[in-house]
């Protein structure tokens, strides 16, 4: 239906609220079958972008095409083919778990019998079959999020939008959500998600844009972004007492870059163990030393001078 064209095409996309520009002229292109992410801190403009893509918030300026259609003109037709998992759960507490799906299916004109069968399949997919008859309220946060994901799939969408799918969930619940999203990916479903968790972006996204202050500061696969904007390894050093900043000069020349944070100093290096040996040769005695691989957090820090999650 989209003739091999991107499912989402945005050029110079802008969202303003009064004088405030939340999304400041971004270009995005999402292809069928990929998992695409918007990564950025709170306030970066991710949700505002998602809401324009979801056709629930009008575009201020720029061009946006979803599934080849114009949200201004074809909002209802686009929405019929989207699955949306919003940031805050908006399940109906009056209904049972299964009814939340069947009732939602009716908005899309899905016949009752088909809706019931689909609800059963989806509850199985999100591992909530046993809770089908219970009310929503007693469900855990992770269960509610899985139910919201199931609800987003009721209309067999071409494109699934997930706004911070695991924010507020504990680690175990997050992993369960990730695991279901992996399965959807394997089934070829196109996923677009926002997140401020770099590990989530690294795990789930084939491609992503890093957003800050309404703009895109980098774009690529997690691996490309790390290769382009960081070194292979990072040494995290924590020094006792004095400010970490005081050690920057003493560490100069070790690796590519020295980055002081309030509680530690990061050394961007290709060989972490060799760098640690040099630190000891200079008679510096950090309280703790950690050698790790570079992550998207390092990419964000390099591009913006700030950490992604405080
Ligand atoms: N309806 C609105 N009216 C005024 N300002 C808004 C509105 N919605 C969002 N904003 C502002 O736009 C900026 C971007 O918000 P947005 O929700 O898109 O960011 P985000 O990257 O999704 O962050 P979060 O993770 O906090 O949702 C923020 O500064 C926010 O306060």
UniProtKB/TrEMBL annotation:
SMART domains: AAA (SM00382). The keyword DNA repair does not apply. It is found in: Cell membrane. InterPro entries: AAA+_ATPase, ABC_transporter-like_ATP-bd, ABC_transporter-like_CS, ABC_transporter_ATP-binding, P-loop_NTPase. Residues 8-238 form the ABC transporter domain. Keywords: Antibiotic resistance, ATP-binding, Nucleotide-binding, Transport. The keyword Nucleotide-binding applies. It is a peripheral membrane protein. Belongs to the ABC transporter superfamily. This is ABC transporter. It comes from Asanoa iriomotensis. The lineage of its organism: Bacteria, Bacillati, Actinomycetota, Actinomycetes, Micromonosporales.
